[in-house]
Amino acid sequence: MMDKIEEAATDYSGPGLAGPAPAITEPVFVLGPDGSILDYSRATAALTEFTSKDFFDLLHPDDHSTFLSALDMRGSESSVKARIVTPGGHRLCRWSLMATGAGVTLAIAKPLNDSAEVEDLPAEAELADALFRSENTVGLVLDSRGYIVRFSPGAERLSGLPAQEVLGVAIWKTVIAPEYADEVRRCFELPLKNRQWMQDIIWRTAEGGRRRLSCSITAVGGDDLRAEYFVANAVDLTECCTAQRQLAEAEERYRRMVEISFELEVTQCEGVIVSMNQSGAEFLGADSAEAFIGRPINSLYAPDCRETVSQRAQLAIERWEPAPLEERDMLRLDGSTVTVEVAAIPMNYEGRPATHAVIRDISGRKANERELLRYREHLEELVAQRTTELVAVNRELETFSHSVSHDLHAPLRAINGFVGVLLEDFGEQFRGEALHYLGRVAANTERMAGIIDNLMLLSRVTRQQMEQHPVDLTEVGRSVLEELRVAEPERQTEVFFDENMQTIGDPALLRVVVQNLLGNAWKYSAREAAPRIEFRTEKDGEGRRYFCVRDNGVGFDMTHAKDLFGAFNRFHSPSEFKGDGIGLATVKRIILRHGGEVWAHSREGEGACFCFRLPGVKKS
Fold first, then answer.
1. Stretch 60-66: mean pLDDT, rounded?
2. Closest C-alpha to 215, from 194, 233, 230
3. Fewer Cβ atoms within 10 Å of its own Cβ: the N or the C terminal residue of the chain?
4. What is the pTM of this model?
5. What is the DSSP letter of 468?
6. Parallel, antiparallel or unpaired: strands 105-111 and 28-31
7. Are 348 and 354 in contact (CB under 8 A)?
8. From CA 225, how far away is CA 229, in angstroms rounded?
9. Which residues contact 554 (CB under 8 A, 6 or more apart)?
């Protein structure tokens, strides 16, 4: 091929290299004395695209002086490296310059695509070939100015840049972070005797990422003033630095957690305390952990458990598994003993086996356990004592209630008797107002007797033994309604019952509940033109069934509903509706004794609804 180029150079006398069947397949430019392009071979199209006739417009500006020097020194043949502008950037080429007649020069380009095409590297640089072929080695060969001549596969992988895009470009303009550019550029200004430059730098990637590298740049060849080449080798420290930072952060978090822990944490190595947290030192009565560092670990424990502590620590290290939680007695600096729980794990301390123990003060808990045990031991005795006292109190209450009932009923009966005698024997002597007053006396004595009877019922509800049997509240309600109709046969009231309202409870007490609720509904709806009463079952949002007695009577103000089930609380005066205010209190006590609940809702003039739930009613 070179023979053909030399022949063309000898015979060249005008345009013809770009002819239809050129004999030359290399990229060749024919340059005039002023550097203008006179002709070129077809192969130049694979190297560059150009429109200017000035050859220097194709060269990288930094390489103009180098190329001109070669042109000035050209003889029959000279050689120079220079970059040519390509559509994708720059391409480093070796140019062979051959002079012909009339000052015409042939410039033959040999593109340098990879390290294999660099022909004149010094022996030291050639020795790096094996490294440069490695996928993992970040290696570069730079010329004397710091322009990239070789770019290893590892460098391509790390930077994300193909070699052909960076060859012939200064290293500080490609892969070096801007803040390190000046420092890297200065290393190429050092004399040859400073043969190596080493420093951690930041390497930038095609995607804008940053990697930390440990980089060394070594001068190769040249003379005492300047190296001919530089070999750069780098190790990626990014993951290592990240791991070190994360480790340091983890150690700092652990140290802070130990320091603020309310528990005692202590590390021992070869039987000696090497670390302790501040909380632990204060717990043992010292101002700082320094008071314990270097002391035998056994000195923290009571004498009778020191041998066990040593054995547990040794066993944890031998098996390399945690020592289970155990109770121990520790000694404070003042000589007092405190009960603690101790758990330990094996670990390495400065390359030696050690254990780290977490110790918790349980002296308060142990005191509570002892007190609880004492109470348990005397519990049966206390229960028996309280039961005897309650039985005695209940007997006294029964005796008192019986006495009060008997002593109050006797004078009431006497009063009623005297009123009856007066009316029977002297009735014709009483007229008008006197007769009215005698009637008032008789009515009030009867009312007083009723109140006494209801109070006695309320007292018995609280004390009497309960029985549990199936109860059909529908039948109970109909029986109570029949009693109400007999007492007031002239009343026309619509009453509706749900069928088969079954529950479990004390039949007698549940009858009292139904008597009071139906009785109130009957009483407070009496003034309605069309009185209506319902006794039904309903369900709540969870499917639980409850019972409701509803009427369309006078109702009441819900503002005072919290007092509704208290004894002697009435929302209507006796002149409006008869009653003593004890019935709803009795209902509540019976329902509560069954383990149920009772409530009501109403509006004045719109009737009332009283509801109760019993535990014997299961979900539907």
1. 83
2. 233
3. C
4. 0.36
5. -
6. antiparallel
7. yes
8. 13
9. 524, 525, 527, 572, 604, 605, 607
Facing residues of 344 across strands? 323, 357
Q: Over the range 261-281, which residues count as b (16 or more CB within 10 Å of their CB) and which as e? A: eebbbbbbbeeebbbbbbbbb
Alpha-carbon gap, residue 581 to 588, rounded angstroms: 13
Residues 111 and 118: their CA atoms lie apart, in Å, by 10
In whole angstroms, give the CA distance from residue 230 to residue 220.
Answer: 6
Q: Cα(175)–Cα(166) distance, rounded to whole angstroms?
A: 9
pLDDT-derived band at 358 (thresholds 50, 70, 90) equals confident
- Asked if 94 and 81 touch (Cβ cutoff 8 Å), the reply is yes
Alpha-carbon distance 179 to 164, whole Å? 25
CA-nearest of 18, 167, 27 to 110 is 27
Asked whether the predicted pLDDT for residue 474 surpasses 90, the reply is yes
Task: At 553, list the tokens.
Answer: 């009577």
Q: For the residues 515-542, what does the mean pLDDT come to?
A: 89
Count Cβ atoms within 10 A of the Cβ of residue 348 and give its class: 0-12 exposed, 13-18 middle, 19 or more buried.
exposed
Core vs surface per residue 361-388: b (16+ CB within 10 A) or e: beeeeeeeeeeeeeeeeeeeeeeeeeee
| List of long-range contacts for 58-66, beta carbons under 8 Å, 24+ apart | 58/84, 58/85, 59/83, 59/84, 59/85, 60/84, 60/85, 60/90, 60/168, 62/145
Q: What band does 617 get if pLDDT is binned at 50, 70 and 90? A: very low
pLDDT in tens, 433-453: 777 777 777 767 766 666 666
